[in-house]
Amino acid sequence: MIKRTVFESEHEMFRDSFRKFLQEEAVPHHHEWEKEGQVSRELWLKAGQHGYLSPTVPEEYGGVGVDFRYNAVVDEEIANMGLSGIGFGLHSDIAVPYIMAYGTEEQKKKYLPGCVNGEIVTAIAMTEPGTGSDLQGVKTTAILDGDHYVLNGSKTFITNGQMADLVIVVAKTNPDEGAKGTSLLLVEAGYDGFAKGQNLDKIGMKAQDTSELFFQDVKVPKENLLGAEGMGFIYLMQELPQERLSVGLNAIAGAESILQQTVDYVKERKAFGRNIASFQNTQFKLAEMSATLTMARVFVDKCLDLHINKELDVVTAAKLKLLTTEIQCDVIDECLQLHGGYGYMLEYPVARAYADARVQKIYAGTNEIMKLIIGRSLV
Ligand SMILES: Cc1cc2nc3c(=O)[nH]c(=O)nc-3n(C[C@H](O)[C@H](O)[C@H](O)COP(=O)(O)OP(=O)(O)OC[C@H]3O[C@@H](n4cnc5c(N)ncnc54)[C@H](O)[C@@H]3O)c2cc1C
Question: 364 FRET partner, CA 20 to 30 A, in 90, 132, 247, 337?
Answer without folding.
Answer: 337
